[in-house]
């Protein structure tokens, strides 16, 4: 995970936002639609990066990232984002203050134990019965980033959910069927789960 903490990693993300076909087409439109249709309410976006997903969440949503340069970029874009230490001191970010947790393109950057630890750290911020959305890249996307350390498929995501006490409600491939993920780098595994009602 240390490879994602530098300013160089933030600069790489910024370059990718405007490279290739992204300069000419609204390539993020399907992913915006996918997030919005889930009706996530106020979201805590774990590993928010430059705020690509945070931009598509409700305006009162909050991002958290261990990369301070990425957090600064989010703020320059008018988003609310914190480093983990700052989040702990932030107003209106206490236990049960979020409707949902989003963890997109994060788990593949760390081993299973750390992934569980990260989820356990932030799940108390989600209200009982709230949504948890886990998103990971499929094969082609996994190969595009040298900081990826572990391929996490549907089974791996379900294992994470079960370990931290979530109930999985839905798992699907997006935006195309699962087989496309072997060649199309932007196909994603998506798992939607719930926190316990008596949390």
From TrEMBL:
<keyword id="KW-0489">Methyltransferase</keyword>
<dbReference type="InterPro" id="IPR013216">
    <property type="entry name" value="Methyltransf_11"/>
</dbReference>
<dbReference type="Pfam" id="PF08241">
    <property type="entry name" value="Methyltransf_11"/>
</dbReference>
<keyword id="KW-0808">Transferase</keyword>
<dbReference type="GO" id="GO:0032259">
    <property type="term" value="P:methylation"/>
</dbReference>
<protein>
    <submittedName>
        <fullName>Class I SAM-dependent methyltransferase</fullName>
        <ecNumber>2.1.-.-</ecNumber>
    </submittedName>
</protein>
<feature type="domain" description="Methyltransferase type 11">
    <location>
        <begin position="44"/>
        <end position="133"/>
    </location>
</feature>
<dbReference type="InterPro" id="IPR029063">
    <property type="entry name" value="SAM-dependent_MTases_sf"/>
</dbReference>
<keyword id="KW-0949">S-adenosyl-L-methionine</keyword>
<dbReference type="GO" id="GO:0008168">
    <property type="term" value="F:methyltransferase activity"/>
</dbReference>
């Amino acid at each position: 995970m240390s490879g994602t903490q530098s300013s160089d990693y933030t600069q790489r993300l910024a370059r990718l936002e405007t490279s290739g076909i992204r300069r000419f087409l609204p390539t993020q439109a399907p992913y915006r639609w996918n997030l919005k249709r889930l009706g996530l309410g106020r979201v805590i976006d774990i590993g928010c990066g430059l705020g690509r997903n945070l931009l598509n969440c409700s305006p009162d949503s909050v991002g958290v990232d261990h990369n301070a340069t990425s957090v600064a970029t989010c703020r320059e874009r008018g988003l609310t984002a914190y480093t983990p230490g700052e989040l702990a001191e932030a107003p209106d970010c206490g236990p049960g203050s979020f409707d949902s947790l989003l963890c997109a393109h994060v788990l593949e950057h760390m081993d299973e134990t750390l992934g569980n630890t990260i989820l356990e750290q932030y799940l108390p911020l989600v209200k009982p019965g709230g949504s948890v959305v886990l998103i990971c890249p499929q094969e082609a996307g996994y190969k595009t980033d040298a900081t990826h350390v572990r391929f996490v498929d549907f089974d791996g995501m379900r294992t994470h959910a079960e370990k931290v006490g979530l109930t999985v409600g839905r798992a699907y491939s997006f935006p195309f069927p699962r087989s496309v993920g072997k060649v199309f780098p932007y196909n994603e595994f998506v798992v939607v789960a719930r926190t316990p009602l008596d949390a």
